[in-house]
# Entry
Amino acid sequence: GRWALVIHGGAGVIERGAMTPEREAEYRDAMNAALVRGEAVLDQGGSALDAIEAVIHGMEDDPLFNAGRGAVFTAAGRNELDASIMDGASLEAGAVAGVTQVRHPISLARAVMDNSRHVMLQGEGAETFAREQELEIVPPAYFFTERRWAAMERSLGALGLPIPSRPDGAPAPTGVDHGELDRDAREHRFG
Amino acid sequence: TVGVVALDRAGNIAAGTSTGGTTAKRWGRVGDSPIIGAGTYANNASCGVSATGTGEYFIRLTVASRICALVEFQGLDLQAASDQVIGDELTAMGGDGGIVALTPGGEIAWSFNTPGMYRARLSEGGEPVVAIY
# Structure
């Protein structure tokens, strides 16, 4: 058989002409890189599950995307990450919700599928399981990006809600492109 | 949100999705991304799907498994099934977002009712396609 791969990096009000050429090029490069990671696995005869992990690892590490590093902030000023994976051959599945310290939530979802009796783990228990599975644990500030923090401040301000303190370990505040925040507000209304 | 559906040379499909959720969300809100059948689904008998969008609507419609059910039980081709669920049913409910999908035969589809979706596809021996709008 022949392998194939299809990827998304989020949907929303992404307006032609509203994004800078530089930012559009960054997204296109990142999507191309994601294809290359998947191709590297599948072309060597690797499994679809391994390809999923390889592709998503890079996207979870890329601040461009709302996943892993680059995730948006909750109203409490935290990054809470969700992920899931499913194997079409066996109908086995794994999922995690609300994790805050696991670098690659997709790998935790796969560990839930492969190494537990369960389908979904959430919060603190999911992170305990991640430690037991010896997955990479990072401090919550690892996920901090100024762009997402500023977007959260803007959203909370519009709702009249209090702004939480910056997370421990977050870098010193830096300037943000407010035009970019306007675009983000339209584009990343949802996850 | 990011997501992938892959078909390997053994004919197996897998799907995965990962997200940070929604900006300034409260109360421990969880969307569709970690919900099997809503944001992620894979079945070698039909297709694999990964979704992105307003999660509450994707959960209520069980979007990912619904597309695969239309392929498996009603014989729709993947693009038609995807467009029915996203373009007709999701839109009629007031939900927005999109999906990427893949069948064991290598048929690829994407469908979205938003102005854009970051997306890419590649089949063995083919040319990569990357699109935004």
Summary: The first strand of chain A starts at residue 4 and ends at 12. The mean pLDDT of chain A is 92.
